[in-house]
Amino acid sequence: CRCSIANSEHRANRGRKRRASKVKAEIKKGGKESKASKERGESSMDTKGTVVAGAATVALGAAAVALAGSDLMKKIASDVGDIAVECVRNAALQLQYGSEKETSNGVILVSTAGGGEKLRGKEKEVEAMFNSISAVASAVYVAEDNNRPAGVEVTFKQPSAAAMVIKSPPPKGWKIGEMPVSVSRGPFQGGAGGGVFGGGMVADALKAQGVKFVFTLTGGHISPMLVGCKMRGIRVVDVRHEVTTVFAADAVARLTGIPGVAMVTAGPGLTNTITAVKNAQLAQSPLVVFGGASATLLRGRGSLQDIDQLALMGPHVKWATSLSSTRDIYPMIAKAFEVAKSGVPGPVFIEVPLDLIWPEDEAWSYFGRMPPAKNLIQKVSNWFLRSHIEANFIGSRAAKSPSKASAPSVTLPKDSDVAKVASMLKKAQKPVILVGSQSLLAPERVKELVDAVNGIGCPVFLAGMARGLLGENSSIQVRHKRRDALKEADFVLLMGVPLDFRLDYGRHVGGRAKLVSVNRDSKELLKNWIFRMLNVNIEADPFHFLLRLARTNFAPDKWSTWLGHLKERDNKREEGIAKQAEAETKRLQEGSINLLNPIRSLQILEKKMPANTLLVADGGDYVGTAAYTLRPRGPLTWMDPGVFGTLGVGAGFALGAKLCRPDMEVIIIYGDGSSGYSLNEMDTFKRHGIPITAVIGNDACWSQMYRDQVRLLFDDVATTLEYTPYEQVAEGFGQAFGACARSESELEAAIDGAFKATKEGKPACINVLIARSSFREGAISL
């Protein structure tokens, strides 16, 4: 929920007293404690204190356990009181499960808020009893430094807090440092409250996987994870709609190869992400979505926003799981990252119940409210509540540091398959290679891919994330008339490209051509065989396949005539586009229509774009025109949603891209329709200092639908919009630079102004008023 959960100090104190009484009773019965009780025994600390605990060795752990159940504990329990019992017990547990932070004078400090009055006036008595602990301390030190003695004294840090301090020179090998409690508390260094801090554990696990950014829209079900991430140095970026969190995480995954991370609150917070999650699944983007959830104790009992989230997410992710205790946090997150990247990459969902990520003391104070056990039913009920809460945290105290996920499993190509395809390619007279997004799943090695494709020397078409792979002026890349080339080719090699609607289900490829497909997904290799059979299908990673294929010695000169033919047709298409833009511009001017031709507007942008531009495509007709007109400047400088054709990716993709590539000029190409999905994120760009430029092609219309609907059905219903002043919307949301352009000179000035604003750290929005065009008539895809 998006409401704060009250941290009642009164409830916290009651919870601590109950637990101390329980410890006292257990000790009086013989000093035996359950494993769960030991693991949740650390205390909260006063704001002036520091905590010391060395790296726990076997000797340290054994001595701590001995202390926790010793006769000394029984004596303290009977002579001093339950608060002192908890102090001693907590000291033992600090030794057993301590962090690696120490003070300069070797002090272990433990306190219990609100317990000062119980010990006040008994300092000497307590000090005398605590002197007995020196024997235990010596036993601890014997493995480290030959039985050094220890002294003990009792001090009070605040009138409302009792503190037991064990003073001694630190054992040999202990590192010395100072840790203010206001920054870090307890063994897991988790914010307010004591004990296990699940939110901090989640952050530790993410940091171990190399995560630098977390995208979120806050809510009470996830707040502890966000606080934990900030404390661990992971940048938390909050947005204005949950769908943006997943789109941004998707962009991070595509540009870095590390699964992106989104955290959203329970119920409607999670349902808001479904479109972006499905887009990531179909685009084969590895990411991890964390969804908040009701407390484990309250599931199915009518708690706020409690739905079956695993059933909701299951069809759209590779793996969906729910944490059942804090001890699951480290291994489950490591597995999630491994699954997301292995085989066919995709999204993973982790449901995180509320009571596992708030500080342990808060969980006890909120969920551990138990009425007096006056009858058997209440006794059983209290036992169940206590056992349930203890089970949430059992095992976490001794949890090892989180480890990096195992290397993802990837199917590598067989030498025999590579040799077979190489032989077919050598024999071909008119070969074509089509490289798709799946070939770029190792973005950190993109230069190797560039060298491999150039080394083969065959005519190549680039699709999806592969656009820009060979730069803006490649000698072997063909940009236009792909369908014609595929019809004429005698050999077609699909690298991570499925036979879907984009290739007319395979019917674009000529019937006489040898058709080979390399894909990680075996299902894609078998799809649409009724329309076009593959001659060879190879289940393997396209990136590694191209690298191995390039090791074969090819003679690209034999394809020079074929390549020249394709390039000549490319040039004619470029000339045709330019002539159409010129003709339509002339008609607008003659008719005194103060609007820009869409092609011409993008030609102006193409000339103005710097070499370090990264383009994000979010739209239909205007983006389709941009694909013909704009030339991505290099590898990984074009981002589009992929096969799902999702509108609304713009702001999220741009957000993730700018964080990963801060030195690049990130430009969103919006249609006016698609801009309505995420223009509100201008507020996010402003708040977080993320300067991007949005260029909106505004023709007051859903043009891709309008043209064919009117032509075939003679009605424009639901396809028309208004010439909305989107630049003013952006200015209002994010104090962005805004400009409206109706002419070429206005557009040139607006682009210059936008780039100047982004250099100053401000986002920018250019509302380009364009006329409707017939350029892409018939381009609707089904």
Word description of this protein:
Helix content is 43%, strand content 14%. It has 31 helices and 20 strands. The chain has a 6-stranded parallel beta sheet with strand order 5-4-6-7-9-8, sandwiched between helices. The protein has a 6-stranded parallel beta sheet with strand order 16-15-17-18-20-19, with helices on both faces. Helix 9 runs parallel beside helix 15 and helix 11 packs parallel to helix 13. The longest helix has 31 residues. 51% of the residues are buried.
Summary?
The protein is of the alpha/beta class and 782 residues long. Helices cover 43% and strands 14% of the residues. The protein has 31 helices and 20 strands.
Question: Top keywords for this entry?
Answer:
31 helices, alpha/beta, 782 residues, single chain, six-stranded parallel β-sheet
Which structural class do the helices and strands define?
A: alpha/beta
Tell me the radius of gyration: 32 Å
Strand content: 5-15%
Average pLDDT figure: 79
Categorize the overall geometry. Answer: globular
Largest sheet: 6 strands, parallel
Largest sheet: spatial strand order: 5-4-6-7-9-8
- Oligomer kind: single chain
Overall strand count: 20
Distance between the termini: 39 Å
Which segments are poorly predicted (pLDDT under 50) over 5 or more consecutive residues? 1-69, 79-120, 130-193
Question: Could you give the topology of this structure?
Answer:
Layout: H1 9-28, H2 35-39, H3 58-68, H4 71-79, H5 82-97, E1 107-113, H6 116-119, H7 123-130, H8 133-145, E2 151-158, E3 161-167, H9 198-208, E4 213-217, H10 223-231, E5 235-238, H11 242-256, E6 260-264, H12 268-271, H13 274-283, E7 287-293, H14 309-313, E8 319-322, H15 329-341, E9 347-353, H16 360-367, H17 376-393, H18 415-427, E10 431-435, H19 446-456, E11 460-462, H20 482-488, E12 491-495, E13 514-519, H21 522-526, E14 536-539, H22 542-549, H23 560-590, H24 598-608, E15 613-618, H25 621-629, E16 638-639, H26 650-660, E17 665-671, H27 672-678, H28 682-687, E18 693-698, H29 703-713, H30 726-734, E19 737-741, H31 744-759, E20 764-769
Parallel strand pairs: 4-5, 4-6, 6-7, 7-9, 8-9, 10-11, 10-12, 12-13, 13-14, 15-16, 15-17, 17-18, 18-20, 19-20
Antiparallel strand pairs: 1-3, 2-3
Helix pairs in contact: 1-5, 1-16, 3-5, 3-8, 4-5, 9-10, 9-15, 11-13, 11-26, 19-22, 24-25, 24-31
